[in-house]
Design brief:
The complex is a heterodimer of chains A (193) and B (236). Helix content of chain A is 8%, strand content 28%. Chain A is mainly beta and 193 residues long. Chain A is globular. Chain B is mostly beta strands. Chain B has a single domain, classed as Protocatechuate 3,4-Dioxygenase, subunit A. Chain B is 6% helix and 31% strand. Chain B has helices at 42-45, 187-190, 195-199, and strands at residues 2-7, 36-37, 64-65, 68-69, 74-83, 93-97, 123-127, 133-139, 144-146, 152-154, 157-162, 171-176, 204-205, 216-219, 222-224, 227-234. The chains are: A mainly beta (193), B mainly beta (236). The interface between A and B is large, with 75 and 86 residues. Strand 10 (191-192) of chain A pairs parallel with strand 2 (36-37) of chain B, so a sheet runs across the interface. Bound molecules: fe (ii) ion.
């Protein structure tokens, strides 16, 4: 097969919000829906300064472990109205958030099962291409221990950068904290996909 | 056991590095650790399809706002979304944003002392058709100055965001115009290592699709990542 050259990536630049900010896009489910959770965090640069011009995108399976996509051939059930995509532009304090449901487990390669996770794209001014990471959950100890992707990472501190921490002081809905460090001591683990 | 197909891996020549010295803002915004390579799973080969998103056809025309025409050179930007094998990518969301003809974005942080245009927002969306085709009507964006270095100006460009069929086909890029004298001086354009990959970001003027007495036409095809040949086993 002769291959065509791919189109190169370029930065979203400082004015991404013109196209990428729209009302309600952080809500994959309504706040008052059953099983709603909130994931929130801050994007930091290499000096620990919050990044106010980033956009975080998530892609995830529903609570049954089913992606709304024809290539998910599992028998798990779709949920009407749950697309699995969310987008959050950081505010002036570098904060982003999502209100969603915790995904179920989906298949990994071979006979493996993955722990509940979200796939994440990070784009910002000063980033020429998106970085990709994953969000796992601190209260999924057992399934995290079996996850083939997490198990590629030996260093405990590095693994922790991929795990959203359950906030024991959560209000009406369960809250998780997940910070993204683009560079530095607590640098998030990014994936080459 | 079902089988899924992986996507091809990206070449370092075709995409910019995370750190490009001449683009200063990359300095504190690039990871220093190496990215960990992971196998594609059902997570990576699926992605948002936006099948329930309803778009207005007016979202593909940036040249008119509330029935009033924007200032500047009216243009069409059209072409196809393809994968590396040359196959069309149908029904995929394309988002665009750009500055006005004077080089000013409708954004509170854009302080360039060029006029705003009350009839220009600079935001559009469209879904590619069954053949992967798309066509926007807009006005030609101006060049604009930025603070990267002394006398820095961006070549005229339109920002594009595409999703494709999978999480790994996501692409955010900028489309440029032919013969821009600023290419040689722009670190964002020049961050792409391969010359042919840089050239592929430049649209082509096309007289055939230029509409008499109305608008110039620029053609631009997007090429997203395609499939790798070998399928993998997914689940029991
Ligand atoms: Fe721009």
């Amino acid at each position: 097969m002769s291959k065509m050259g791919v189109t190169a990536s370029q930065t979203v630049g400082p004015f991404l919000s013109i196209a990428m900010r729209s009302e309600g896009q952080e809500y994959l489910v309504p706040r008052n829906s059953k099983n709603a959770i909130k994931i929130q965090g801050i994007v930091y640069d290499g000096e620990g300064t919050p990044v106010p011009d980033a956009v975080i995108e998530i892609w995830q399976a529903n609570i049954n472990g089913k992606y709304d996509h024809p290539e998910d051939t599992s028998d798990n059930e779709l949920i009407e109205g749950f697309s699995g995509f969310g987008r959050s532009c950081t505010n002036n304090e570098g904060q982003f958030f999502f209100v969603t449901q915790k995904p179920g487990r989906v298949n990994g390669r071979g006979n493996s099962l993955q722990a509940p996770h979200l796939a994440v794209n990070i784009l910002a001014r000063g980033m020429l291409k998106q970085q990709v990471t994953r969000i796992y959950f601190s209260d999924e100890v057992q399934s995290n221990a079996e996850d083939p992707v997490l198990n590629q990472i030996d260093d405990e501190l590095e693994r922790k950068t991929l795990i959203a921490n359950f906030n024991p002081n959560s209000g009406l809905i369960d809250e998780y904290e997940f910070h993204i460090c683009l560079q530095g001591e607590n640098e998030t683990i990014f994936f080459d996909v | 056991m079902t089988e899924l197909e992986s996507y091809s891996r990206e070449s370092k020549k075709d995409h910019p590095p995370a750190f490009y010295k001449d683009y200063k803002s990359t300095t504190l915004r690039h990871p220093k650790n190496r990215a960990i390579k992971i196998d594609h799973t059902v997570t990576e080969v699926t992605g948002p399809l936006f099948s329930s998103v309803k778009l207005e056809s007016s979202e593909g025309d940036l040249s008119i706002e509330n029935g009033k025409e924007a200032q500047g050179q009216r243009i069409f930007v059209s072409g196809r979304v393809l994968d590396e094998g040359g196959r069309p990518v149908p029904n995929t969301l394309i988002e665009i944003w750009q500055c006005n003809a004077a080089g000013r974005y409708l954004h509170p942080n854009d302080q360039h002392p060029a006029p705003l245009d009350p009839n220009f927002v600079g935001r559009g969306r469209m879904i590619s058709n069954e053949k992967g085709e798309y066509k926007f009507t807009t006005i030609k964006p101006g060049a604009y100055p930025w603070g990267n270095h002394f006398n820095a100006w961006r070549p005229a460009h339109i920002h594009f965001s595409l999703f494709g069929p999978a999480f790994v086909t996501r692409l955010v890029t900028q489309m440029y115009f032919p013969d821009d004298p600023l290419f040689a001086f722009d670190p964002i354009f020049n961050s792409i290592p391969s010359e042919s990959a840089r050239k592929r970001m430049i649209s082509e003027f096309d007289l055939d699709t230029t509409e008499p007495d109305f608008a110039l036409s620029f053609k631009f095809d997007f090429v997203l990542r395609g499939r790798q040949a070998t399928p993998f086993e997914n689940g029991a």
